[in-house]
Amino acid sequence: MIEELLPDTVVAVEACGHDDAGHLPLYPEEEAIVARAVAKRRREFTVVRSCARRAMEKLGVPPQPVTTGERGAPRWPAGLAGSMTHCDGYCAAALVRLTDLASLGIDAEPDGPLPDGVLESIALPAETARLRRLDGARPGIHWERLLFSAKESVYKAWYPLTGRWLDFTEADIEIAVDPADPRRGTLRAVLLVPGPTVDGRRLSHFDGRWTARDGLLATAITVPHT
Q1: Residues 6+ positions from 214 with CB-CB distance below 8 Å
Q2: Signed CA dihedral, 3, 197, 188, 130: sign only
Q3: Which residues contact 91 (CB under 8 A, 6 or more apart)?
Q4: How far apart are alpha carbons 209 and 9 in whole angstroms?
Q5: What is the per-residue pLDDT across 161-188, written as a single tens digit (0 to 9) for each?
Q6: CA distance to 14, 20, 104, per residue, from 48 (Å)
Q7: Which of 11, 20, 214, 222 could link 58 by a cystine bridge, Cβ 3.0 to 4.6 Å?
Q8: Against a cut of 0.70, is the pTM above it?
Q9: What gap in Å lies between CA 32 and CA 166, rounded to an integer?
Q10: Which of 202, 183, 2 is nearest to 83 (CA)?
């Protein structure tokens, strides 16, 4: 599902369901991060890193541990950009060589309502108005959850380029629906703070894609070289 949202240069590996069979064990450095974690957190951590290791193999990179840095951001092997996501019953990792993309971010969420109060904390007034129009024109998708997913993907693409926090309200995201398939489309995130500089050019927005399928919502942001 994630792979269809990404360019061909990106390798994505997914795991669905709750079967632990076939997943690779953690490296000692990874094991230390979740030594005291609850079972659910530990399982998701293990499965998504198994996905990341298989993606490394597909790129021809020797499998290595994926530890965490500041704010929990994954530390990728030199020369790679990547992103990981997990929700109940689904994990995915996407990797690309830095020569092919400057950064990327992926996110998956259940296609269900956001908890009470979350939308008000993440959405700008213009985004809320657009969500109401989408709800009226295209019922059947939880657009507020899709917006949340898109904001997560934007942040995951932003942070490796800047090393700085990006608040939910510092990117204005417009969701467009594919006329040929109302359960997929594109994203544009206009950055409301100075954007990162890539190849000497300051970015004003990020672009991406989304899909709704099998009870899940998935978003992906890619930052090409300019």
Answers
A1: 1
A2: positive
A3: 14, 15, 44, 47, 48, 51, 84, 85
A4: 16
A5: 999 999 999 999 999 999 999 999 999 9
A6: 8, 11, 16
A7: 11
A8: yes
A9: 28
A10: 2
